[in-house]
Amino acid sequence: MAEIVLDGVTKRYPDGTVAVHELDLEIADGEFVILVGPSGCGKTTTLNMIAGLEDITQGVVRIGGAVVNDMGPKDRDIAMVFQDYALYPHMTVRENLAFPLKMARTPADVLRRKVADVADTLGLAGMLDRKPAQLSGGQRQRVAMGRAIVRDPRAFLMDEPLSNLDARLRLEMRTQLSRLQKRLDTTTVYVTHDQTEAMTLGDRVALLRAGYVQQVGTPRELYDRPANLFVAGFIGAPAMNLLPATVEDDRLRTPLGPVPLIAAHRRALAAHDAGREVVVGLRPEALEHAGAGNDTGVTVTAAVDIIESTGADMYAYLFLEDGEPAASAFMELTATDDAGSGGSPDGRQLVARLDPDTPAREGEPIELRFDPRKLHLFDPRTGIRIPMP
Amino acid sequence: MRAARRTVGWSAANVLVLLWTLFPVWWILALSFKSPAEIGTDGGRLWPRHWTLGNYAGIFRTSEFLHALLNSIGIALIATAIAVSLATMAAYAITRLRFPGKRWFIGLSLLVAMFPQISLVSPLFDIERGIGIFNTWVGLIVPYMTFSLPLGIYILSAFFREMPWELEKAAQMDGATPFQAFIRVIAPLAMPAIVTTAILVFIFCWNDFLFAISLTSTQRARTVPAAIAFFTGSSQFQQPIGSIAAAAVVITIPVVLFVLLFQRRIISGLTAGAVKG
């Protein structure tokens, strides 16, 4: 059990590329922190530096209060689960689980008991004498997990441990992992590129992009108050709708049509000294069919382009006729470099998450409604959120 | 019809190759079971008229052959053991570490092995006499290692390059020192390559004639291939062909055993299941 502190940690490779820029992160004892970001954002490098598998160019990593910069991985007393599991193929499951204990010179009777305990916890008891090659993907994943927890390390590091499982199994393991971490109450740093995993697993999430931390906070904070356009686009699926807008006296002119400025937005814009141009963000789930329930809020009419139904939800991709193609600088600020994170905002498309019973049909216009208080405002020059007081 | 004809064609080709390679072996075997008299008159016969173990009894009666056999076994085993363990560690270091000139290293080491051995014999002769290891086991083990190490490093580093690096990281995270990670995880997985290398190195040392004849002068370090050259008939009018054949058969046996014994360990796909699959 230990807290992990990263203080101005930088990784620069010999060829000059900087993978991580002065990263500051404090992970409390027992906390479950997710490092998330598109590929190449420096999340795995950060994890490797905590593990001791990569040198730290600058800055300090402290585990349990002690600086570990010059400590080898074996002396840091932390365990790691690898993306490809990295099971020892020439050893049985039992030997794989026992390996960390053997390295720590654990007495034979304690070793036997601990291996049996872990095998019970993870449901591996029946396959202790098999080799990794004879196991399914999910079973291998559990052995990798077991090898990490067997010696009660001070912290767990996990490098995309679920990404090699099929979708169904991944969901199942995600829940199991959550339960396990809560029970063991061990500090955990978890790397993933999947925003759903980040949102569901973590106590806190650190979102990285190109070696820079974009935002650190609880999943709720990242969702409710994204610090910039990148976070806004990365967290949430489908991604937040981001549209260019102009401030006019008492309203916003947007591709959605004119939106009255509410008091909070007016104050925020005044305090921020933003220009007249802003970017508005609206979550797909903030939109609903205008026909249902009360009639407050702003209404938008748009043609339905594509409908995707998941059973529980209906995603409607709408085409805004008043929209104009977004400028490339705007695209740059929102680009997530990740094909899987939803529709890329081009200023003319709108995604709405609707009730599956909504009478929407492809090619026909539909009237939607949203609460203007749900709008997020961003400064298009910097991409930074215009904070609401 | 065409398939059948093709099968027949391939079978014929296989039989031809088998005959081609096994004929000399059989001929040596046949010679070794013929009496000196029969060899003198009827040496070309493929089937001995009278089977005799006289040649075998003869070579084992002399200390000349027994001593050479001992030298051969000792020198080849020691050279193989040292060369393979050094090559394994060196190859691992070369694949895993980053250092300047790394790309040239393997190429240069291979160059050593490609050097014509004959050109090294006289300098080696002088050097070994100078430092006093001429006509000793060490005097043969050292040049054997020089020639087998590059080959070993080459084979093993090709193998290590294919090995998932995560296994070593995992071992280190599990509390192993780099050396423990190497011994307990990497080396066992590299066993097929290590055994292959060992077989090749052993055969090289075992069969060497050039160094053995040039760098020894007495029974003290002379190995079988060299000793065979010093065989004499039981009288000066007799050729030692039977004894040579018998000795050749005897020294082929360990190599065959060595390969048969260890080829079971050369199992492909030993690393299956280490990473996702």
Task: Indicate the topology.
The complex is a heterodimer of chains A (389) and B (277).
Chain A (H helix, E strand, L loop, with lengths): L3 E9 L5 E10 L4 E5 L6 H9 L6 E6 L2 E2 L10 E4 L11 H11 L4 H14 L15 H13 L5 E5 L7 H18 L2 E6 L2 H7 L2 E6 L2 E6 L1 H6 L4 H6 L6 E8 L2 E4 L2 E4 L2 H10 L4 E6 L5 E2 L8 E12 L4 E6 L8 H7 L14 E6 L10 E6 L5 E3 L11
Helix pairs in contact in A: 2-3, 2-4
Chain B lengths: L1 H31 L3 H7 L11 H8 L1 H34 L5 H13 L3 H14 L5 H25 L4 H8 L4 H12 L1 H17 L2 H5 L9 H6 L11 H22 L15
Helix pairs in contact in B: 1-13, 3-13, 4-7, 4-10, 5-7, 7-10, 8-9, 10-13
Can you put this structure into words, describing what you see?
The complex is a heterodimer of chains A (389) and B (277). Chain A contains ten helices and 20 strands. Chain A is of the alpha+beta class and 389 residues long. The longest helix of chain A has 18 residues, at 167-184. Chain A is elongated, with a radius of gyration of 24 Å. The two termini of chain A are 38 Å apart. Chain B has 277 residues and is mainly α. In chain B, α1 packs across α13, α3 (54-61) crosses α13 (241-262) and α8 packs across α9 (178-189). The longest helix of chain B is centred in the first third of the chain and has 34 residues, at 63-96. The interface between A and B is medium-sized, with 32 and 25 residues.
